[in-house]
Each structure stands twice: as structure tokens, then as C-alpha cells.
Recover the amino acids of this structure.
């Protein structure tokens, strides 16, 4: 299992089909929420705020929006974003 970069919560490793090499992508903010629970809570108002904010990033960075292995897409998947809302 890959180790996330400093300050990141998760890491995902995949094989680049062009080169055959392994690439590791780190994403998400490390640490716990202020109440000690998980930081990522889909279906909450905090999740809706993240999804709305990251929807703007999807518009501003079309290359990251197209790449399913980008940190932006991986984080949106963790938050269960559909458009600008987070679903449970």
C-alpha cells in the first residue's frame, strides 16, 4: 500500500498504461475533524460546500477534470459528489 505525501490523507497507486510504471497520487487533507470523527462525511452540508467548490475547479482545470486518477477526481469520489451536491 502506498504512503500518502506529508499532509495528505490518502494515496492511490496505478500503473501508467503508456510507460508501464507505477504512479502514486496523494489526495485529501490529513487529520481528523474537530470532533474527532472522519474528515470526509458525504451527504452533509460540509460535503455540499466541498462539491460546489470543487465543481468550480472542474471548470477551471479541464485536464484534471478529464483524468479519473487526478487528486481532484479522487477527492470528489470520496465526497460522493454529483454536480454541486454530495450524496450519501
Amino acid at each position: 500500500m502506498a504512503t500518502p505525501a506529508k499532509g495528505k490523507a490518502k494515496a492511490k497507486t496505478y500503473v501508467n498504461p503508456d510507460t508501464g510504471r507505477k504512479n502514486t497520487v496523494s489526495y485529501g487533507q490529513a487529520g481528523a475533524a474537530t470532533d474527532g470523527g472522519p474528515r470526509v462525511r458525504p451527504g452533509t452540508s460540509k460535503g455540499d460546500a466541498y462539491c460546489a467548490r470543487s465543481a468550480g475547479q472542474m471548470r477551471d482545470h479541464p485536464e484534471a477534470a478529464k483524468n479519473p486518477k487526478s487528486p481532484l477526481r479522487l477527492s470528489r469520489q470520496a465526497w460522493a459528489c454529483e454536480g454541486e451536491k454530495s450524496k450519501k
Notes: The beta strands are 8-15, 22-29, 81-82, 85-86. The mean pLDDT is 94. Residues 43-88 form one domain. The first helix runs from residue 45 to 60.
